[in-house]
Amino acid sequence: MKKYLLGALALALLASSPALAENTKIKFTLDWKLQGIHGWFYLAKQKGYFADEGLDVTIDQGEGSAATVTRIISGAYDAGFGDMNAIIQTAATKPDEAPVMVYQMYVQPPFAVLAKADGPIKTVKDLEGKKVAGGAGSSATRMLPALAKSADIDLSKVEIVNVSPSIQEQMLIQGNVDASLVFNVTAYLNIIGLGMDPEKDFTFFGYGDSGLEIYSNGIMVSQKLLKEKPAAVKGLVKAINRAVMEVIADPSLGGAAVKEVEPLIKEDLEVKRLEFAIKNLMTSDESLKYGVGGVDMDRLSRSILVIKDLYDLPTTPAATAVYTDAFLPPLAERTLK
Amino acid sequence: MSPVVRQKLASAALIIGVFVFWELFCLVAGISDLVLPRPTQIVATLIEYAPAIWPHAYQTLYTTMVGFFFGVMIGLSLGLLIGSSKLAFDTAYPLLVGISSIPKVAVVPIFVLWFGAGTVPAILTAMIICVFPIVVNVATGIATVEPELEDVMRSMKASKADILWNVGFPRSMPYFFASLKVAITLSFVGSVVAETVASNKGIGNMMMIASSSFNVPLVFAGLFVLAVLGVALYVLFSLIERRVTGWAMRKSDIT
Amino acid sequence: MTVSRPLVAQNTAQTTDIANLTSPLVRFEDVSVSYGNGENATLALTPTTLSVTKGDFIALVGPSGCGKSTILKLVSELLQPSSGYIYFAGRELGAKPIRVGMAFQSSTLLPWLTIRDNVMLPLKIVRPFRQQYRSKRRGEFKDKVDALLEQVGLIDFAEKHPWQLSGGMMQRANLCRALVHEPDLLLLDEPFGALDQFTREELWSTLQDLWMANNTTVLLVTHDLREAAFLANRVCVMSARPGRILEDREIDFLRPRNIDMTFEPDFVTLVQHLRGLIVRPTGKAAQEAAS
């Protein structure tokens, strides 16, 4: 017994020895369970990019992109992958606690109007006079008024059927509705799961493509980390950007990185998820101009107003309060080709 | 054929029957394995992924047992404490009932906020979920010592500690061990629930990942593993109960 | 048999009384007990004076609720008197530790222990035995317990658990447990109340043998007048609540007594006399006594 105790003590001493203690420990939370779109984070860890920046990053799976914000506020996590809109909402009431986005990855909202390719909907304006399936309580349904405003749709002419999110695609396929309001990545993979081709058989009208100016997930850090260890934030963003650019160039790297963490994952499916996210959420005129992680501050200000209206926020946070580009690597390292 | 054997055979036949019916129903009705995979598909998935499933099963067992262990320690001490004093019993009981009526799923996100996702919330959930039945059972066992027996003990000038140690404690053991098999099942559920919400590993986490990549047979394989582990833990603690507190079963063939 | 006291073959009331007349083992002086406070207080025991001589066997009989058990609880210090004084060996009760053995109608044997371990329990608890328990439980204490079990015919059941025994056997074990720590006083509260007539009479003889062999002082509470008359040196008849002693009567049948004696005219007359005391007073008390 004594031997074991001594052994444990020795281990504990070893673990806290200076050689390892040099690395700054960072607890990082994902937005959801392990998926292909988390490939770059694991790649950065596996390839030692974090270590190169003097960081020891622990990646934990999440329970929702908004929960990332609460997890960071609670102090359990220093940084994470989560939703800009949740930051805006938090910043409106608790400006001192809200995390700050330092690397905006999804510059488009992940919502889309899904319609059959051979159906009657050719533009979002065609929704007027049609039957639309909306997930009860889902953000895609909640964002519809904002979309209607920016795309000039008369919502009084749209019939919205409340359904369970899990059967939205099936209702569309069976012709019960003309369109569904969906999370684009989820719907895309659901359709593959149902044995159909999302590219050929369906059309995705992204809310962002229809003029809704809101952002989605990115890398956020606590204000504490920002103030106390700016160098660590810089290193974190640099390491992640390095992995992101590699995965954008070759998405199979991301699939392999995730597969290494969880052998049960279906690699081909996860690579498709990743490719879809790169194409539909990360690529836009804005990201081509400002690089991955960067934003157009004017568009961000407008998106804050959209969120303020939508959620009836008491104050309007400044764009500079929810986002900073101070930690971004040079544009050349972040440019999409 | 003895009635016992016949009854066991009937149980086994029913289980097999359910699976056969399930298999045939899926085949005949042409149900997609995205909705309800057939048992044979599930077993095939289990075998195919066995090496990858094992670390998850191990993690779930680990968090269950660690949480259960601490839960038992706390439950036993609290039970002894509040069972040996009427005042403590009356004072603490409403609080315990209140805590126990909180759905434990609701506390997982709180544990995550405090400790981050991973092993700790699962252990804590497994722990708190199993404390209550143990406390109640142990406290009841101690509090219901016959007044005559207490008089006998007090007439021997036995101290409270003497009575607790020689009478209350052993007397509460059947209640305690009966509560263990309930508690271990609850702990197991608590672990899995916590894993589905906030964990990087474990059967609950595996099922979440599998469902988000539409690997429905794997989700069901997860359910199978849960069922088997759950039953195994229950049986284990039932056996321990029989072994340790055979005297309470009033059967002369148990020593 | 390791009990060191001499075996008293003819332990009659007269001899013990004469030997210990000057210093009773237990003395109640105007002891009363009431429950509750103020106007709601009920008197359970009217001021009572009673002396118990060392080595005596006293039976307390009376209707339900007459305070018989109250007297036992007072002696065993489970209850404090509301007024009056109780002396033990000339000093007020509580001044020095008094060793009592108790047995109730329900055997209260611990089901998880063997009969031997059950009987050994007081040796684990009561001073001065408890200090020696660790070193002696396998040797001297085991011999002591086994000797008692031998006396009551349970030695072959020493390794059994209580639920494997009949009710009569459990009460024998219960008596052994009450006696094993050589108590100054053996307090028995309806010990045979739940047994059938034949088993009960068998146990009367067992108890008589134990008492004669161990020279203990016994206070027996019972409903059964024949039991009282058969076992005791003195019978105290008590009235219905509030309890008080109606008659304190010496019983001088020769020892050892046997069951045949209970059919002799003297015995029958005595029982009838005792019965008359309890049944006579009022209608209500009479009903209670008869039930």
UniProtKB/TrEMBL annotation, chain A:
Residue ranges of domain SsuA/THI5-like in the record: 38-251
Keyword Electron transport attached: no
Pathway: Cofactor biosynthesis; thiamine diphosphate biosynthesis
Domain of life of the source: Bacteria
Catalytic activity: N(6)-(pyridoxal phosphate)-L-lysyl-[4-amino-5-hydroxymethyl-2-methylpyrimidine phosphate synthase] + L-histidyl-[4-amino-5-hydroxymethyl-2-methylpyrimidine phosphate synthase] + 2 Fe(3+) + 4 H2O = L-lysyl-[4-amino-5-hydroxymethyl-2-methylpyrimidine phosphate synthase] + (2S)-2-amino-5-hydroxy-4-oxopentanoyl-[4-amino-5-hydroxymethyl-2-methylpyrimidine phosphate synthase] + 4-amino-2-methyl-5-(phosphooxymethyl)pyrimidine + 3-oxopropanoate + 2 Fe(2+) + 2 H(+)
Keywords assigned by UniProt, alphabetized: Iron, Metal-binding, Pyridoxal phosphate, Signal, Thiamine biosynthesis, Transferase
Database matches in InterPro entries: NMT1/THI5, SsuA/THI5
Signal peptide: 1-21
Similarity-based family: Belongs to the NMT1/THI5 family.
Function recorded in the entry: Responsible for the formation of the pyrimidine heterocycle in the thiamine biosynthesis pathway. Catalyzes the formation of hydroxymethylpyrimidine phosphate (HMP-P) from histidine and pyridoxal phosphate (PLP). The protein uses PLP and the active site histidine to form HMP-P, generating an inactive enzyme. The enzyme can only undergo a single turnover, which suggests it is a suicide enzyme.
Subunit structure: Homodimer.
Protein name: Thiamine pyrimidine synthase
Organism annotation: Roseibium algae
UniProtKB/TrEMBL annotation, chain B:
Top-rank taxon: Bacteria
Main localization (coarse): membrane
Keywords: Cell membrane, Membrane, Transmembrane, Transmembrane helix, Transport
Subcellular locations according to the entry: Cell membrane
Stored PROSITE patterns: ABC_TM1
Keyword Cell membrane: yes
ABC transmembrane type-1 domain ranges (all copies): 57-237
Keyword Transmembrane helix applies: yes
Spans traversing the lipid bilayer: 12-31, 61-83, 95-117, 123-145, 175-194, 214-240
Family matches, as InterPro entries: MetI-like (IPR000515), MetI-like_sf (IPR035906)
Pfam family, one: BPD_transp_1
PANTHER family, A to Z: ABC TRANSPORTER PERMEASE PROTEIN HI_0355-RELATED, ALKANE SULFONATE ABC TRANSPORTER-RELATED, MEMBRANE SUBUNIT
Protein name, entry field: ABC transporter permease
Automatic annotation (TrEMBL), chain C:
Recorded GO MF terms: ATP binding
Pfam families: ABC_tran (PF00005)
InterPro entries named among the record's database cross-references: AAA+_ATPase (IPR003593), ABC_transporter-like_ATP-bd (IPR003439), ABC_transporter-like_CS (IPR017871), ABC_transporter_ATP-bind (IPR050166), P-loop_NTPase (IPR027417)
Coiled coil (residue ranges): none
Domain spans labelled ABC transporter: 26-265
Entry keywords, A to Z: ATP-binding, Nucleotide-binding, Transport
Sequence similarity: Belongs to the ABC transporter superfamily.
Protein name: ABC transporter ATP-binding protein
Organism, scientific name: Roseibium algae
